[in-house]
Amino acid sequence: MKKVLFASTALIATASVAAAEVNFSGYGRFGIGYVEDRVNVTGATTTASGAIVPTTADSDDAILVSRFRLNIDANVETDGGVEFSGRVRLQADEDSSTGEANSAGLNGARFSVIYGGLRVDAGNVAGAFDNLANYYGNEVGLELFAGQYSGVNYNFLAYSSTGSGANAVFFQYAVGDFAFGASYDQRTFFPGGGVTTDADRWDVSATYTFNNITAAVAYGQTDASGAGSDPSLTVLTLGGEWGDFGGTLFVADDATEVTATDGTAWGLSASYNLGAATTLLFTYGDGNADADLQQVAIGAIYDLGGGASLRGGLGVNDCDVCSDSTMVADFGAQFNF
Amino acid sequence: MKKVLFASTALIATASVAAAEVNFSGYGRFGIGYVEDRVNVTGATTTASGAIVPTTADSDDAILVSRFRLNIDANVETDGGVEFSGRVRLQADEDSSTGEANSAGLNGARFSVIYGGLRVDAGNVAGAFDNLANYYGNEVGLELFAGQYSGVNYNFLAYSSTGSGANAVFFQYAVGDFAFGASYDQRTFFPGGGVTTDADRWDVSATYTFNNITAAVAYGQTDASGAGSDPSLTVLTLGGEWGDFGGTLFVADDATEVTATDGTAWGLSASYNLGAATTLLFTYGDGNADADLQQVAIGAIYDLGGGASLRGGLGVNDCDVCSDSTMVADFGAQFNF
Amino acid sequence: MKKVLFASTALIATASVAAAEVNFSGYGRFGIGYVEDRVNVTGATTTASGAIVPTTADSDDAILVSRFRLNIDANVETDGGVEFSGRVRLQADEDSSTGEANSAGLNGARFSVIYGGLRVDAGNVAGAFDNLANYYGNEVGLELFAGQYSGVNYNFLAYSSTGSGANAVFFQYAVGDFAFGASYDQRTFFPGGGVTTDADRWDVSATYTFNNITAAVAYGQTDASGAGSDPSLTVLTLGGEWGDFGGTLFVADDATEVTATDGTAWGLSASYNLGAATTLLFTYGDGNADADLQQVAIGAIYDLGGGASLRGGLGVNDCDVCSDSTMVADFGAQFNF
Q1: Chain B contact for A6, CB < 8 A?
Q2: Most buried in the list A81, A276, C100, C172, measured by CB within 10 Å?
Q3: B67 contact partners, CB below 8 Å, separation of at least 6
Q4: What is the SS3 assignment for A268?
Q5: Strands A294-305 and A278-287
Q6: Residues 186-245, chain A, touching C (beta carbon < 8 A)
Q7: Contact A66/C105, CB-based, under 8 Å?
Q8: pTM of the prediction?
């Protein structure tokens, strides 16, 4: 059997002459993931009072975790220098509830037009929050299981790696030290009975970079279709780098119009390069609402060269109304291609 | 993250030395699609008299339409010069009923053997109608929403881009100015209760090209399994090019054995190159049966170079028993790779 | 439409300079498959005594069979010479019950770390049996419909080409003429009602090659979770090549803890190169349990060059308690890429 080998470094040199091309990139990662008292929801029962109680079965706390991600990108450039591109992602993950594997799947397509500092995305797009500088900060662990945003409950427009995602539009414009973003998702639900419910979402952002510091602010809201006030989210982030040290700050006003999760959310994260190959990571996220998720985690990355690295993390998840905290940890290898 | 870039033009030069290769091609398109009074069927109710009435909910008339299509082709050539190839298509489309996106999917595989003027396809194949010269003519719009064949209701063997398709065989032989095609689909239904229903389909075609004109005729029929006469279709097409002008004519005898759609169908289409980059398109399709779909549409394509173009169309769908006509329009960009 | 051609032989020369790469390989095959009295199970009925009887409908005995298989492999090599790789397989097959086609699908991902003679696989892996030298021997037919292992009923850890597979680990170590393998599958079932059932599987193997002969032995067992004895399997294989002749021997102790299938299974296979392009194949498999499947088959492969070949086989399936034997045959083309 002849193998068709596609050499990456060799071909990059010839890419500049190509009018149309298909690119493949992505990463694989695998290792051990631990979640304290991991359970699998296998069904639900209804009590005499009408409450629905999920039936759970114990899973193994330590399971084999993995992800294979392949981005399929197609690009063309017009005579006038406008770039058109499309992306579909192929991804396989383990089933974290059962510890068994899932088959790989394909997500919804994203389309882009890029010209100078202007970028327009359509389809399965990331919105202004999902694209916001330092929103995610330094996430921790092989699986990025903890982040500074953990207290946020607003459901913003995000790129879906394993589903169809939204069918929305995102605009981005960069000029000098400033960048602006905005998205609009004409979302429609069909609850049945001939009813159509609009749940349109929009968000906007502004980003300013001065020296080694980046500040960003974003606001978004969702049409509640007359059912009360429109849920909204406001986020302010700060991020900077000083030599081997990097840090981010995060503050959000999370107005989901649900008492248990409404309020202020905050967090921070840090990274430190310890020598040539090791990076230490820390993240903390929290919120003042009863059900806001609090995450504290430390982690490390050890670079093996060639795009491969060993990664791991250790953290605790908790909330004010949670009966107990949950310890989370993972360790494994990641290779980017 | 290193990106694996595959340069198309650079590699074409080396393809002649390859015994086995995997090719990627396709297109992306996205834009705005408008359908007057677009609805989504969300269920069905049964009236007191037993009639089943679909429940529909209003959708947005104007939605974001898109398609990402990637053909995965594998080819080998034997020492004797026989080419074997296989194709699977990866495609993502918007959901035109709801205005939301669908995840990308894979279709059924098609296999081919090619030697000289002879080609045999097996699996998810296009039959003699689907391969017929000028059957589709100049379809109009970013989404090709209108065509000269609109009055035809016969369900012929066609390539499926998003499903498994048929498991059939197609033969094509070209000699000089003549080409012949034939297909056979050994189709079987299992309605349950241990019953097996044969619904085999076959079709044949002949094509003759003289100077700048191509004439083609095709006939096909489907086994009704003893339930009345076998449905059949006869099609005659003519197509020609005169400088910047191209046109097609279409006549069909549509014998679906259903009164509301049986009869003659006809249509025509035209294209005109207006300057170096713009092409104008027109198409018209109709039939004499009460439920035959009539389509009239005009459109344009503006070439941006590099495989990219702007495309749009405007048309009206109607039929004799339709309560009202429906306006359809779209506009957007397409890029081929 | 520009086609992106990836030349295999031309690019292999450049692969050594690449740190990260995505490879595509696989095969296509298509032809005619015959199964005597082929049926499709369309449902089931329950008799008055409570027995469940499947409802079957006749299918065509001779159908169009096909497979398109594309392996997507991503590889990186660290500075220290450790290779990390991930594989997802895209595969489309015909539906052998109905004679219709299936759409292509993606399977679960497999991850590998390779360093010197050591290999560790994780995810959708093949276990020690599935990787055992000469376990499958010379399988016969375009579809490899018969093999020497036919009397084995133990369900060992195997790579899944069309499903998610297991989420397991496989180790392999080769040193000189010896090779050792072992796998562990932390398998969990959730039958509902909050119950968790462990069904862990493990297996080990040893292989020794002396001159032109390879001997291999493997043992594996599955945790019965307290429900009786643990099912197990012991396999011994021998394989050798003498010029144009190759042969394998197979003996297994199949302890599935099910009376109808427990006992000894045995088989053998042979291949003979008849001239430069033709290979003749024979296989026989059987067991002493009442329900053990007996397979006898002969086949041939004719090499067309360039990775393409014509293949076919003819065989008979039977068992002690089967009401009748079943003739099986196929013929078609395969092309590797």
Answers
A1: yes
A2: C100
A3: A109, B27, B28, B29, B30, B91, B92, B93, B94, B143
A4: strand
A5: antiparallel
A6: none
A7: no
A8: 0.92
